[in-house]
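Components:
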Amino acid sequence: MSLNALWVDPRDHVATALADLAPNQCLELKAGSTHCQVTVREPIPYGHKVALQDLAPGQTVLKYGAPIGSTTVAVPAGSHVHLHNLASRRVAGLA
Amino acid sequence: MSSGTFWGYRRPDGSAGIRNHVLVVGAMDNINPVVRRIADGVRGTVPLWAAYGRGMFGEDAEQHMRTLAGYATHPNVAAVLVVSMEPKSAAELAGRIAASGRPVRWLAVQQQGGTARTVDAGIRLAMQMVIDAGRILREPVPLSELIVGLECGASDATSGLTANSTTGEVADWLVAQGGTVVLSETEEIIGAEDALAARATTPEVAEQLLAAVRRREDEARYIGADTVGFGPDNAAGGLTTLEEKSLGAVRKGGTSPLCEVIGYAQRPTGKGLVFMDAPAPGTENVTALAGGGCHLILFNTGVGNPVGNPVSPTLKITGNPRTAEHFADNIDVDVSGILTGDHDLAGAAGILREHLLAVANGMMTRSEILGDVEITISRVDLSYRRLRGLSGEQP
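Structure:
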């Protein structure tokens, strides 16, 4: 068995791709005893993040159960979460 | 042996080590070749030499000497031969070691009359120390006495998710056993410092941690370096924000309350999770952790970093399946099964815990076997400290 994405904490809004993910791919994930399911909307490279639920603009995004930044636009479930839709609250993001 | 103990060597100062080293230590860089020749001539000795040691001042000199003394009085060290160029520095370091109750002798090359005579005398002294150290037997020691340092080097996208998460589980286990875990690498926690400070046992500890991060950021600005610590390579690997990167790094400390913040190569005074304010680069950070008395180091590596420490056995852990295979000679523990689905986090933590105990009980690490051991004592930028009024010295 090989995992295609890793969901660390059940509070997390994102999971990390452990393989290149393709559109329409269905992910079944488990964090502790919590399960979730999401359909990938767009290509997501290995090591990058996928949204597990619909995220509103300005929403705090959790990974490792802690805030990693805020969304800059609405992010539908299954989307690639990266520099184009997530910004640091600690320092200005990369240009 | 009961589950809550390891086999250690009891020392006169009450500490207990997981190795029984006879250390040949150089007090300054000009006699390092002599140190190496003595150690080459006596099996069972460990040479310890560092750059600098001459022309150092104030806190810079103090940190250098404190670190050397930290190694010479480390729980893993049974006896010490100090070598220096002249008697004053040799006697000063030897005095600190004698205060710990350890057998210590010193030699000064100027007094002995050159390198050949010093090497000749040093071999005989060290040889006797190795014979005497062999009489010390391992005995059961409570795990609550174990101090484990944490480091990551050559990190990649898998580090936070696999090796650091595994180490975090083991860190929580050791703290639950009453032991001590030392998290460090100040620049690596920028962005996660609030989450860590929120776990501090007192407001003072929280403030010390936040102050250490502010100082490191200010120091970076002072020298004109990038204070962000997040670059295009991180983003290409899938990390998006500094918080995300730092939370992955901090994860290796587990979830225990933060009990204490200590300085470079300082000894923890209590138990539990401790933060050491020291620079992040692998060799420098491990030098500080071992100098602070950590019995062993858990060193997570994503892409592969071979370096270990001469006094504190350094376990190399990777969660990257490619590194586990390609860099196998240098990897002690492979937890990449988390990514391949061969085991879950709890399973990986079990593997690491078992390996940690085996190393504490005497099993050698890859870096010990291969001799991939090195120290680099960080220097203190006195001009920065004076400018910011941080120095205790009078101008």
